[in-house]
Structure formats: C-alpha cells, structure tokens
Records
---
Amino acid sequence: MTIRVLIADDQELVRTGLSMIVDAQPDIDVVGQAVDGSQAVALARSLRPDVCLFDIRMPGLDGIEATRALAGPGVDDPMAVVVITTFDLDEYVFAALRAGAKGFLLKDAGPELLAQAIRAAATGEALIAPNVTVRLLEAFAGDRPAAPPPQPVEPLTEREEQVLATVARGLSNGEIASELFITVSTVKTHVASLMTKLGARNRVEIAIWAHQTGRMRARTTGGDSG
C-alpha cells in the first residue's frame, strides 16, 4: 500500500529536495506541495494524505498552527503530521507534539530516518529524531503539569507497565519485542491498550505520561521491581 504524503515548506529548494527523497521510496508518493500553512491545511483537507510533512517556520499560518488545525485536540478525524525543521529548539518540539504531531525531525536527518518517520506516522506510531528524544523526555520529566496527570481508566497490568517503560525510552515495536521476548503484534496490542487506558493519542503522549507520573524515575532508582 502506497503512503500518500503532502509536503509544506516555504522554500522551493527544500520542497523539491524533500519531494525527491520521498518519491525515491518505493512505497511513498508525494501527492501535493504547499508554500505555507494555510495552503497546507486546505490541501490536506482536500487531498486527505496519509501523512503531512510540515516545516515549522512558514509565513502566515506556521507549521505548528497548521498541525493543530489538522491533528490537535478536538479534531474529529486527525491526520498524521510529521514536523521537520532546521531549528533544534525544545520549545518547537514541545509545541509540535502538543499540537498533535506524530513525529519531529531535523532537516539534516537523512533520507532513511525521514522515510522511517513517514512510515511510522502512517501506521499511527511516532518517531522523534534520536538526537532530541532523550533531551525531550528529560525535559518533560521535570515539566510538571498544572494538574496531576490523569490516572488510567483501568489499572495497568504488569506487562503493560513493562511496555510503558520501553515506549518511554523511545524503543520501536521491534526493539520492544526483542527486549521483552514477545511478538511485534503483542507489542502493538499492549501499546493500543495503553493508549486507551491513558487517553493518549500516540506513543509520545504515552512516554510523556510515564515521565510525568514519575514511573521512569522509579525504575531508574530501583523503585519498580516490575
């Protein structure tokens, strides 16, 4: 099945370069290009691509607001958005993820990681550039929300706690399966259950919840025997 991608960037050279990289993938096609956030939102709603690849800094409506319009809280049928930027700034990462993005990459990430992020987003997973993942989660660990994190609608099982910890470390489904000696399909089942119980929209929100509730600190200090 071919993954249909919409690219939005205000620089023509960047759009062209990204399009060439994406179209070179046998299972991914570029179905549209936009020069700013407003055009990106309009095209996305018209074309209904599988994944939107948005730059952050664009004139008028920027990539963050475009992401929020298509994937933010309250959107009935959210789209998969991957944000890509030249600016390695924490506030951009936080804003993009809180707006509903399923991925965050730097423009120097390379073709392989870009393709991985698009494929992950198309299947409902999230991929963040490895060089910002650890810093991001550490920041969220100390970024206490104004209200206590919501409690699960049902208690987590021991295996779900294990999967939660691996997701919070940024592991892929394959890596989790290898570490816990279970199948990839079983991992997907547990991740889906975690999303339901935690009210999370993606893996990133699962990881954020794990850090904000102190579970990762407990595991690091030996407070969790599971």
Note: The longest helix spans residues 184-198.
---
Amino acid sequence: MDGGQITFNDMAPFSDTGEFDGKVGHLSDMCILVAHPKGWLLWDTGVQPKKYDGFEFTRKRTLSSQLADIGLKPEDITYLAFSHFHFDHTGNANEFLSSTWILQNKELQWANSQPTPFGVDPSTFSQSEKVKKQMIDGDHDVFGDGKVKILSAPGHTPGHEVLLIKLDSGKNLIFAGDLYHQSLSRDKRLVPAFNISRADTLASIDRVNRIAKNLNAKLFIQHEKSNFDMLPSFPKYLK
C-alpha cells in the first residue's frame, strides 16, 4: 500500500560516512497489508502530509481509502505492527483503534521517553494507551504458524524490526523497515548518523542479510521507490 512520499533537500544524515552528502532524495513510504486465514496484519501506517525544515511528507491517498478498494475498513484490521516508531511509519496509527497493536517493549518505552526522541511524534500514536496491545520482546510469530514473523533488528531505533512473510507459493519476502533506506545503503552497509546504535545496526544488517540468503527471500527496501514499483499496484497482491 502507498503510505506516502518523502522529499529530502539533503540526504546527508542517511550515512555517517558521507555517501549522500548534498544529494536530494525522493523516498517511497510503503505499508504492507497481509491476508491470513486468521485475520489481517497491517505493517506500518505511512505519513501525514506535512512540511518540515529540510524535508516534506506528501500523500496521494489515505490508507482508509485504499482499504476501501477491497471492501475493508480500519476496524477490520486484526493486527497492527510497526517497523519502528519514527513518524513516517506511525502517521495514521490512530485510525486503527479496533486492532491489536503488536509492539516491542523497548520501542514503545523509547518512543514515550522524555525528551521526545528525534523523528518521533507522539501525537501520531497517542491512542496507544487505549488500544488492545500485545507486547513482545524480540522475534514474534504473528499467527502462530510460521507464515508471518516479526524479526528483531535493532540499531536504527532500540526496537526496530523487520517483517518476514512466507507465501503459500513457497516464495519468501522480507520487508526491511529502515534497516536500509536505499539500495546503496544495503550494498555498502551504510549507517545513518541518527541511528541509535552503529554496532547494533551492523549486527542487524548481517542477521537479516543472512536470513534472506538462507531462505532465498526477496528483500524489499521500504523507502526505495524502485522496490515499491516492483510490487503489484494495490489492490493487486503477491501470493
């Protein structure tokens, strides 16, 4: 699903070794809707249109209007999970009040800490205190059958995670959150300057890359527009 677009005047913060210095960046913001016999999972909730100093969030369609294309409403989503709690991934979270929010303990504690961490907007997930929550620590099997797994991959934020999906066709997919922001980031193992831990980031990169290799999984970089364009246009889907 299309969670919006992000334009940066200068991508320098996305590598602490200078690869993006002075470069303009146009990033996608994909959200993933997973159908399972036991319910629906929505992974990440995109942006709210807004202009900031140095970058801008835009959005062509709301998530609700896209869900309506397949006859769903926000209250039909069984589970809601987030790669992490930066505001370009939690922008529409408060629309999903009937869902069970699957949250990493470390991530929620960090996002609610004071002063508010860089890149976090608590207003985008202000209903987190009221919704039904499933708190986790580390990896989690969403539906209990190994088909949809949340994998811990800290470093970008304390509770950052990626999504592994095993399709009935035998294909395996990984949606990598912000473990990488561009293809160059993955190729060169680049670490953004604003990541919480450089060491944890590199360890998570190594872990996820090895999992992808061992499972022969196709890995999608969620902010890479070319990766977004490789996916079927919603409401078409992979199976």
Note: The chain has a mean pLDDT of 97.
---
Amino acid sequence: MRIVLVGPPGAGKGTQAAFLARNLSIPHISTGDLFRANISQGTELGKQAKAYMDAGNLVPDEVTIGMAKDRMEQPDAEGGFLLDGFPRNVAQAKALDAMLEAADMKLDAVLDLEVPEDEVVKRIAGRRICRNDSAHVFHVTYSPPKQGGVCDVCGGELYQRDDDSEGTVRTRLEVYHTQTEPIIDHYRAQGLVVTISALGKVDEVTERAMAALSGEHAV
C-alpha cells in the first residue's frame, strides 16, 4: 500500500505511522528522518537543506520533494510506503502526484487523523520533559509524575519546552490549517481520504486505522 498520513500536531502521527508501517510491512518515511539522514550523510540535498536551516530559513519545497523522491525509489519502498510529514502543502501534493504518475504508481489512501483542537492543545501543552534526559516524558493529565515537577526515573527537574506552550501550539495549529489541511481537500477530490478519530488509546486508534484502510467500518 502507498499511504499518506495527515493530521494536526499532537494527533499521534509518528506513533501511528510506526505501528501501521510495521503492520503493513512497508517503510515509514518521515520528513524528519529524511532531513536527518541526508544531512548526516552529507548528500547534495542534505547540504542544501542544512544551509537553509542554519540561516534560519524554511527549506524550499523542491529540496524536500527531492529527498522524498530519492527515498521512495529505494528497493524497500517498491511494495509501498507510508509518508508522514510529506506532502506538507498542496504544491508538494501535486509534485507527489506527478512523481507517482511518472512511475506508473498511485496512492491507495490518505489517512486523516482527526483530533479536536482543544484536545491537541491539552496533549501538547501538558507535556513535561526531564532536564536530565529528554527521553523521560510525562504529561500532567495522562501520565503525571508521582511527585509534581520531578522525574520518576532519575529525579531530574521536569519542564515545559517553549514550543509546547499553549500559544506556540495554537500558532502551529494555525500553520497546519492554512498550509497542510488544504491537501485533504486536494486528495478528497481524488476519492482517497479516509478520516478516523485519533482519540483513545494508541492500540485502539491503530485498530481503527487498519480497519479503515482495509475498507471495513471503523468504530
């Protein structure tokens, strides 16, 4: 299967992408991984991306598209792939359409993870990270530490990252609504969009997604 995964920040795209890719035996291709891999390997596209990022500028669509094209042409993606974070806007979606058409391929589905805006804010703004180890993550509502402000694992101080503040989250949501959300309409016109609720436990959302992708009724 060839799938594009979309949804607002805080929808759990990364988590669901990993589970779905494993269940479907296809590679999970995320924009973040593409950037890190190209930059660490010193590819020409990686050098271009790093130059823009170091200057504090957005990486142009053509660089991102080039990275995605290279990755989708790898042998492990011949039988399908799950795209996470790409395409990020309509221009990238149209470029992906053209790439697939040129390769005589097509998308099977665009999986839209739907989460109410207030829930997105609650999920992200409630995160607390350990200053000693960023892998130790808690949530004031869903997985609170035993002692407020203290990491259960190492006793380090828990803090809220600047980009997890409510104001920043709402700004990220606005960017999503204006730049990324329009691709849903782009793909809906092609009959590819499958929308599911991303509320509930991780395994419940995965089951819902697998049922929807297989054409079954998602509960």
Note: The mean pLDDT is 93.
---
Amino acid sequence: MTKQLLIYDKAVPVSPKQHLNTSVKFGADYSFAREVNSVPLMSVEFEFCVGEYAIVFAGEAGTIMPVAMLGVRDHENLYVGASGEWLGKYIPAFLRRYPFVFSSNDDGKTFTLCVDEDYSGVNTEGRGERLFDSAGERTQYLQNVLNFLQAYQVQFLATRKFVQMLEELQLFDPMEAQFTLRSGQQMKLGGFKVVNRERLRQLDGQKLAELARSGGLDLIYSHLHSLRNFTPIAERMAQAVPPLALPNGSTSEALESAPV
C-alpha cells in the first residue's frame, strides 16, 4: 500500500509466512505523527479530549468524521516534543493503534490486519513483542492488537452513526477560526465544520429527545465546549521549548486498557 491514513507508509497484511520472526517495539516515541495537524477521533473519546483539544468535523457529506486538532498550521503537530514524546495528557486511539491498521477491499464486510513495515519499531531482531510464536500461532500481544482494532472498528461505526444523525438534522456549518495570540499575532484556520448552535436550539422537542437518548446531545456539547481550545493550542507555538530527553523504556499504555 502507498502512504495512507495520514501516518502509514507501507502497510502490509500480517501473516505467519511473512512475519513469523517479526517483533514490534513501541515506546514513547510519537515522531511518526510529527507532521499531522489533526487526527480522526471516535465519539467515545470526546470526554477525554474536551479539556485540551479542539474537536471539530472534517470531510465531505457522507464521509464526515470528528477530528482532534493538534496544530494550526499544515504539517505541524504541536503535541509531539523534540524527542518524540507526546506532550498532551490523552493520546488519541488513532495514534495508539499505530503501526497496525485494518484494511478492507469489500466495503467493510471483511477486514485484514496490516502493519506498517516502515515503522522503526518493526524488526526481526527480537526487540519488543513478537507477532507469532515458533509454531506460527498468534502471540497474546498480537491477539491484544486484534482486540483493540476490533473495538476501534465498533466505535468507528458508532461515530459514523452519530455524525449521520447530525447530517440528517442539517446541523453542520463550515467555520473559520480566528484568534489572537498573546503576542498580538492574529491567525485563521479553516476547512472544517462545527455544529450550528442556533440551529440546534431550533430543533423540535422530539428530535432533541432522540439526540439526548442516543447520547448525541452530550457529544455536541463536548464538541462546542472544546472550541475554546483553539487559542491554547496556537499558543503552544510560542511556548514550545526543547524538552528534556525521556529515559529509555516504554511508557505506552496497554492497548486493551486504553479507551477507544
């Protein structure tokens, strides 16, 4: 596969034939996301992101998804430090699943687990966790990866259902964020969508009740509340200083315990 999904360079199907002796070492280095200024976000993640990221919507009709803003300029992620460490409190699941991803060639009827072989942690020297044992059977690590991606796919479908509801209610508006930094510099950022507050207020009682019962109303309020994070995110450009190098060793969360 060619470069896809923002961060994947060479995603190939995982198989015992090709990856019998392959291991994956994943630590605290998120340099692979250094040039990504936004990533897709699952609706279940809103509550973890609302305090530090601006949650907006991106894409065309029928393919719109929530995204977490990580920077205000192209190819700039303000949450990756000089040594590759993540500077935020919460790491979106889209990044935590890397270097693995599901691919599908039949409109989502079946999925194939792939790994980005260009990721520096993929190796045949035994560093990290093996994907298969000597008999070609999945290791517990690989099973945990599959469990995480399956849960991610479930949440993806739930998120699409939420977004489709907002589309049907015609609640989206294109928006351009304008903010002034403490230095006095003014910045603009566009190309995304937000929920129109006035249109939301004008919904009839039945539609509002449906949104409330589905949990969609809570998600909308989280989205709207998060928009105040645009200026703090932009301020990171001025505040960024070379951080101290982290000590060696993995600090990544276990896949199976992380919210998706």
Note: The CA atoms of residues 144 and 256 lie 6 Å apart.
